[in-house]
Specification:
189 residues, Hypothetical protein af1432, globular
Length: 189
């Protein structure tokens, strides 16, 4: 599948701008990790881009991601891509995270959402954002309350990366697509 085909399918099922931006962020993070680990960039970015494409229509477990997995299978997506997407749901016991791809998706999913939330609170957005400031916001449970902090820390641990290094890596991965994510610094910064 090409990225254009991925986007076409994604846009068929998703209208929410914030959800699309989330998937773009996870795509960027997984693409960066694919380069870092010497993995298949197209496969990894596809997993990041498509991991939540079914969420708007079927947000309840286990429909998400199982409905999406069925659709991806019908469209000829590789089994490894479908499995990785299914593995990001903790409530699917028959899909443990075993590959580096599975673990990378899980490690980046919640963290991308949290980093974007943090950036939206800063006039300079992603520019100059440090892991220390993200970690500080993680301690404020009322901030971005829907983001599971345990998923963030467990994801980094399962991937075998230091949490601060992981945060810095994902921030750097998101910076080139800041405009697509609505994270352009405010005027004067």
């Amino acid at each position: 599948m090409t990225r254009q085909q991925d986007l076409q399918l994604l846009n068929e099922y998703t209208r929410s701008e914030s959800l699309i931006r989330h998937m773009l962020a996870v795509e960027a993070a997984l693409r960066a990790y694919a380069v870092h680990f010497g993995e298949d960039i197209d496969k990894w970015r596809t997993v990041g881009l498509m991991h939540d494409f079914d969420y708007e229509r079927w947000p309840d477990p286990p429909d998400h991601p199982l409905k999406g997995a069925e659709i991806l299978k019908q469209h000829g997506y590789p089994d490894e891509v479908i499995y990785a997407i299914k593995s990001h749901a903790d409530y699917l016991p028959d899909c443990p995270r075993v590959s580096r791809l599975d673990k990378s998706l899980y490690a980046c999913d919640e963290l991308c959402g949290f980093i974007v939330a943090c950036a939206l609170m800063r006039p300079e957005r992603l520019n100059g954002m440090a892991p220390k400031s993200v970690r500080k916001k993680m301690k404020q449970l009322s901030f971005a309350a829907a983001v599971n902090r345990d998923d963030i820390t467990r994801g980094a641990a399962d991937l075998g990366v230091d949490l601060d290094e992981h945060i810095a890596f994902v921030i750097a991965a998101l910076q080139p697509i800041a405009a697509e994510l609505g994270l352009v610094p405010e005027a004067g910064d």
